[in-house]
Predict the structure.
Amino acid sequence: MLPFARVAIIGLGLIGSSIARAVRQEMPTVRLSGHDADPAVRARATAIDLLHDIADTPGAAVLDADLVILCVPVGAMASVAEQIAADLPADAIVSDVGSSKAGIAAALAAALPGQTVVPAHPVAGTENSGPDAGFATLFHGRWCILTPAGDADPAAVMRVSTFWEKLGADIEIMDARHHDLVLAVTSHLPHLIAYTIVGTASDLEEVTQGEVIKYSAGGFRDFTRIAASDPTMWRDVFLSNKEAVLEMLQRFSEDLTALQRAIRWGDGDALFDLFTRTRAIRRSIIEQGQDDARTDFGRSHD
Amino acid sequence: MLPFARVAIIGLGLIGSSIARAVRQEMPTVRLSGHDADPAVRARATAIDLLHDIADTPGAAVLDADLVILCVPVGAMASVAEQIAADLPADAIVSDVGSSKAGIAAALAAALPGQTVVPAHPVAGTENSGPDAGFATLFHGRWCILTPAGDADPAAVMRVSTFWEKLGADIEIMDARHHDLVLAVTSHLPHLIAYTIVGTASDLEEVTQGEVIKYSAGGFRDFTRIAASDPTMWRDVFLSNKEAVLEMLQRFSEDLTALQRAIRWGDGDALFDLFTRTRAIRRSIIEQGQDDARTDFGRSHD
């Protein structure tokens, strides 16, 4: 039995369009409607037949939905919620896919009083953006974290869980604040660091940008992938999860200072100890199926 | 015509064993000898028939070589050079594959007075170590940087260039000090940052190591790959290229502080501007064939 019959997707970028494709594949009888604020994206979504109905307004997209998923940048969630409020069926469940959760939960509760809201965060993505970047298997084997409020309807949480399981995800239920702390370290800080180092490398005087690009296979290129992620999405993530990100950044800076000191004073044992310890983490990630087990992420070496 | 007839490889890890495999494939008439300080590695190299002769000492491995390539950690270069000095044929060319060059050049010149030395750095690798980690195509399409001294014999430089071209690499000649600055930003700083963030993430109290591993697909897992690189090799790189690494680290820290400030004060425009700029670098790297053009490094998404 399907958890929902009519799903509305607001925001048709990488995640929204991946959900649409996955629903078409895994739950082909579900009716899909949706909207994107960008007319060019709506036109493209129409051209590739992403949904059954592409509406000109968010409100028109949700008119008869039983699940509405907001797939817009975190900073746009409140505004989109306000735009759908008048048209939303009373029994529709509202969810989202935002990378920070406490702020969104508050914004959705304020904009949609009385509505059943089950926030979600599928921990999955690529460096690409837009409706063409999505694909049906994006959520396979990835975790989808639900952060329902303490008084949330268990039946609604169950339905959203089942929906994501059908898209191939594993489900975890978590407190929104704890989610924001966990993701600050596993996702937000890595993106911030990657953006920073790519910026640093492109601003040097002694080393040209051409040299940085040419010799990037020494390690730098790894960071450029996540530093190519959607700028609007990530700006909003950092602003909305400010406290947790700043806390993790503080920890990172302290550890970096300690390592800097070890290099300056030639403390090879301190370096060796850390470098040995970090190897084990990689092994665990592979063992738990959270990364490609092939060497070098499976990059081709022909 | 082949640039060398008898090649000795000292150090049979990822790079040394990849050179051996590539030589066997591309220059099958070349006689390969070699040595590794670790008896277990020598035994394994013998078992997989990596070389024609595996000697019990570095000196015995180089006795009749016309090219000797030192593939040991940077900190072991001087000692290995001293160990081969007495047995080295007078006309043999000595090269290496170290990730920092100015210090090695000085160490080799001191240990091998009068010998022709052409230092090299193939900018290629994976997160794996040891004789089984190597493969023949590792250097395909990668840059190999040669850093000969100003008074180096041009014919010797040409022969080493030809050797690396036959292994599939593109050649660049560079001053050793400039090399060390360029690689500090394209390779050493990224590794240092990756090691640090993986250490930070595994030392938190509020977020468990299990959670870090579980939700690593949010970005963190990318950093764990290079943080799984060989600890001895990387300890030595940081200690030997101390000045350039500390300079790049200083730049990075300044930029990170600026970004931290932008987050704290909610300066979304500053974040958005940087995040937009960094996208272009990724595109250039792909266009120049220095990374896999496929989404997500080509990771499988089944």
In short: Residues 75 and 236 of chain A are 5 Å apart (CA to CA). The radius of gyration of chain A is 21 Å.
